[in-house]
């Protein structure tokens, strides 16, 4: 079989169930942290592994090993095999939840890159700009779900995870992941990958004991308190605005004519940015200064350079939205291996004229740190009540960007961006020039 995108040939489409099937039905109710993301699109990521292997070795050795280790991982992450159950009306008494049924499984696609493997692997795993559509060829689809009729109850049933392993003959393979944000935030998905990697490595050495892995999930939803009924507020918003939000995100997620690139910022450059604001803010974090420089100041300047903000003198506001992990902020704190969502959106606003001014970087640092301090110091319930009724209208391109630790050097950062070609050219020029000055 060959996908509509001719970059890959599908060798196999299978399903993987947890090893030692639980043989029971399990429900994991959604918390308000989960229901906040009901209107958001699924998340995608691709991991690349460089290894010289033939197609025969890949299909006969690597794939069976990956399937076996995945089945063992899903034994612990069994909700990822199940479905989201979301009522379609408030009159339905169904509790929004993740449901696992006996026999549930995860979709796994095994594919082969159909072009020149050396060029394809180098291009897609590298840092230079490449068409987003090319990367999406390495990520499986996540079905939108269906309407399940059970008596008088109408419930939307949606898968939460799908996987794709793609071979680049004699050069390596990739693992593409698509998951529902409602089921898991970035920390949970990171723990899932860590667990799969650890189990796979232990298998190669003959180990079969995995219960002591620190990345195994914590399921107790009672640690998330909701005395004000915030989850119901988010569910009402979802049911009222689902169609409108879907249209907005379809447009925002249009991957045609978009390119993705990875930029690097090293420890010395980060230290230099901190020094620029140290007289006023002596203890500013790496996250704050990098976000201020890269995810706000450079973007505002790039849009201005392209004429997207025709008159910076106008009262035009830029909104920067980012997520803060609340696990350590709850009382009592939630374990780091908690499965689900435990992130809060933070945001700040500045006028375009302030962002592109000479002192714009310092002002941006103060704004972002103030937003974080506000979340830390305020009562969590109050914050969530505000979120239910006052989300920012415009987040621009920020939902398409990623900040992560470098694979090659401790203390350096890799910054992933997704823009149009013109925006990427302008942004990367401003990014590089700013670090040199």
From TrEMBL:
The keyword Heme does not apply. Keywords: Acyltransferase, Transferase. It comes from the Eukaryota. The keyword Glycoprotein does not apply. Pfam families: Transferase. GO terms for molecular function: acyltransferase activity, transferring groups other than amino-acyl groups. PANTHER family: PTHR31625. This is Transferase.
């Amino acid at each position: 079989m060959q996908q509509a995108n001719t970059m890959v040939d599908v060798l196999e489409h299978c399903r993987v169930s947890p090893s030692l099937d639980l043989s029971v039905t399990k429900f994991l109710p959604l918390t308000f942290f989960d229901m906040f993301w009901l209107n958001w699109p699924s998340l995608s990521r691709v991991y690349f592994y460089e290894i010289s292997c033939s197609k025969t070795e890949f299909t006969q050795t690597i794939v069976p090993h990956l399937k076996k280790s995945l089945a063992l991982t899903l034994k612990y992450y069994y909700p990822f095999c199940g479905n989201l159950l979301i009522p379609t009306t408030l009159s339905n008494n169904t509790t929004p939840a993740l449901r696992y049924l006996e026999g549930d499984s995860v979709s796994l696609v095994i594919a082969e890159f159909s072009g020149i493997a050396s060029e394809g692997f180098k291009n897609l795993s590298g840092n230079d700009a490449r068409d987003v559509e090319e990367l999406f060829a390495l990520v499986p689809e996540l079905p939108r779900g269906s309407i399940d009729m059970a008596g008088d109850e109408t419930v939307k049933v949606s898968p939460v995870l799908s996987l794709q392993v793609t071979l680049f003959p004699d050069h390596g393979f990739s693992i593409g992941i698509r998951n529902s944000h409602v089921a898991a935030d970035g920390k949970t998905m990171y723990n899932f990958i860590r667990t799969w990697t650890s189990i796979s490595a232990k298998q190669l050495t003959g180990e079969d004991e995995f219960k002591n892995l620190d990345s195994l999930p914590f399921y107790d939803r009672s640690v998330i308190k909701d005395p004000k009924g915030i989850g119901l507020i988010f569910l009402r918003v979802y049911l009222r605005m689902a169609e409108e939000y879907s249209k907005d995100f379809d447009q925002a997620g249009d991957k045609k004519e978009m390119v993705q690139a990875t930029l690097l910022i090293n420890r010395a450059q980060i230290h230099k940015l901190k020094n620029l604001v140290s007289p006023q803010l002596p203890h500013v974090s790496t996250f704050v200064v990098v976000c201020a420089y890269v995810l706000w100041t450079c973007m505002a300047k790039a849009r201005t350079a392209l004429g997207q903000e025709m008159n910076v003198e106008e009262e035009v506001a830029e909104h920067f939205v980012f997520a803060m992990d609340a696990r350590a902020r709850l009382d009592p704190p939630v374990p780091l291996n908690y499965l689900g969502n435990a992130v809060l959106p933070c945001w700040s606003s500045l006028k375009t004229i302030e962002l592109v001014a000479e002192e714009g970087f310092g002002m941006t640092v103060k704004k972002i740190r103030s937003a974080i301090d506000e979340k830390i110091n305020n009562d969590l319930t109050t914050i969530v009540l505000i979120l239910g009724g006052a989300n920012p209208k415009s987040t621009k391109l920020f939902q398409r960007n990623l900040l992560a630790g470098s694979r090659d050097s401790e203390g350096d950062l890799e910054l992933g961006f997704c823009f149009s070609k013109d925006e990427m050219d302008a942004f990367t020029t401003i990014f590089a020039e700013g670090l040199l000055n």
